[in-house]
Amino acid sequence: MTFAATVLTLYPEMFPGPLGVSLAGRALGEEKWSMDAVQIRDFAADKHRTVDDTPAGGGAGMVLRVDVLAKAVDHARDSGVSTALDTNGEKARPVIALTPRGKPLTQQRVRELAAGPGVILLCGRFEGFDERIFEGRNVEEVSVGDIVLSGGECAALMLLDACIRLLPGVMGAALSGHEESFENGLLEYPHYTRPAEWEGRVIPEVLRSGDHAKIAEWRQRRSEDDTRLRRPDLWERHIGARV
Ligand code: SAH
């Protein structure tokens, strides 16, 4: 089964973009995942190919029309890449809209998505989506952080990048995916490499000791200390999960 990504966007030329190089690019070439960027404007009904309109209730900006969005979503679901059809018992791909109002993306959700048939991603522009699309088409709302982007495309690239590196055979050393930040609810410990001394700063002695038990202990402690200091939110959840 190939992880199939369909991105609904007003800027299909932004894809695969950065996902066309390095690990993700090689994996795309090797057909370990597939990418289809679909122009939302193709689903507009009028000859001007209008996709947006002014906000109900007034105010600045434009809102993406629910009827146009629905047609684009229906198209993506129907033309379901053969690996992802919900006929023949396969799970259907979830439809995810990128929006700052959505549920914050987590590594856990990324893992679930990467283990599935793929995703259909809906990228907003302007003020965003007509709210009715979410319930009307069973669309999950996901945010990539408490920041406001100018469009959903960079958020979609982030989500896909996070999924693709977890696909079987994509990351060289398969193990490196498991010790990382968030995988155990903590930030990862810090890394060092040669030179041993740089501008008077030295690599912590324990890492050069060759004592693997001590090293593991040091890493675990740094992982916990750094999480507590830098991300009290993660730390609280980690502590909560242990009791
Ligand atoms: N008016 C909206 C912001 C629109 S930004 C609001 O205040 O909530 C335009 C588009 O960029 C959005 O529709 C969304 O697709 C994308 N976007 C912006 N910030 C995002 C974020 N943090 N996560 C995911 N998508 C985001």
Characteristic terms for this protein:
Alpha/beta knot, two-stranded antiparallel ribbon, binds S-adenosyl-L-homocysteine, alpha/beta, 2 domains, 243 residues
Write the layout of secondary structure elements.
Blueprint: E1 3-9, H1 22-29, E2 33-39, E3 52-53, E4 63-64, H2 66-78, E5 95-104, H3 107-114, E6 118-123, H4 132-136, E7 140-143, H5 153-164, E8 197-198, E9 201-202, H6 212-230, H7 232-242
Parallel strand pairs: 1-2, 1-6, 5-6, 5-7
Antiparallel strand pairs: 3-4, 8-9
This protein binds S-adenosyl-L-homocysteine (SAH).
CATH superfamily of the largest domain: SPOUT methyltransferase, trefoil knot domain
Give the end-to-end Cα distance, rounded to a whole number of Å: 38 Å
Going by helix content, strand content and strand pairing, the class is alpha/beta
Shape: elongated
What are the segments in which pLDDT stays under 50 over at least 5 consecutive residues? none
Count of folded domains: 2
Strand coverage percent = 15-25%
Hetero groups: S-adenosyl-L-homocysteine
Given the structure, what is the number of helices?
7
